[in-house]
């Protein structure tokens, strides 16, 4: 049957379900350049407004995967397992998690991205380590994963991994079509399935600093992604975790690396440790590794050994000092009481204004920029006590960042209701 972009767009615009044939054709034609960017943008908007059913979503994801090469690690001597987070503020969990799970006996092949807007990207964080390189050949990736003293790799996806997503995401970013469960689920899962991992743990964030602002939407996204993974033969489970307040006490690339190293050394903020261990337990279970508790491995220091080896394997010097910002300024409390709210979006926005994030794909970031949080919700606060330290190389950015932070917290008389960090678990 012959297809046209206009007929496919019109079918979705009018609320119809696209046939397998229509989906296969439109994704392939877009990848080849035979469907124009403006046509794909119109189709993306129709999908945002009309959605996709489970069959359409599975077919769309398969077509995205088929636009490029699929990696295969089934011959590695150890089970492969990866984690994906839908993105949040201060989310440095991959940094301690990947070496921890490798130290438990799995291989962790993580193809990661750079940040856009208020959420940071794992590659940006790791690139703040002097010498560290995000680009690896497939052969080198395999060597690192096979080495029992390393076993974890975090690197940039090659241009041939789901090229349709690379182009489509760039369009979605500038056409108001990012926030859609089927488009997010297919974008993330096509890359994770093509990456060749045998098992996957998803950290789906819920709250002001996340894509999904409420639990119902996050549950829909997690369910769609788990179904896609399971249907593609990847053992997949999702945790729904809170993102109303930032994770840990830092947001910003080098600041977050330093905090991750504290966790690997047996310290670090309790919420970062809790989520790292919870996700590691899920990953180890999905990988089929029994009788190893990641909490014991972390306490025994073996995750730190894998971290150092993992950084060095990608050219980084794990002992080198991290970049330091040219300007810092401390924001103090104007009143005493208890910190009742610290908004993730406000902190993410402040870090971005300070230079830690980018506005457009391809821009550079300031490695040393970001926000240090001296208090978290529930902490007592005295008038005049430091609440934040902002770090930046651009002094002129400080007033706007401080204004964003001033709007993002509240001090009250009563402690806030305590909310669990791990809200739910969704399995296939
Ligand atoms: N991350 C992705 O890779 N894709 C999306 O659509 C959203 C977040």
From TrEMBL:
Cellular component terms (Gene Ontology): cytosol
Claim: Glycosyltransferase is one of the keywords in the record: yes
Highest taxon in the source lineage: Bacteria
Pfam families associated with the record: Glycos_trans_3N (PF02885), Glycos_transf_3 (PF00591), PYNP_C (PF07831)
EC numbers on record: 2.4.2.4
Broad enzyme group: transferase
MF-aspect GO terms: 1,4-alpha-oligoglucan phosphorylase activity; thymidine phosphorylase activity
Keyword Cell division: no
UniProt keywords, alphabetically: Glycosyltransferase, Transferase
Subunit: Homodimer.
Name the UniProt record assigns to this protein: Thymidine phosphorylase
Source species of the chain: Nocardia vermiculata
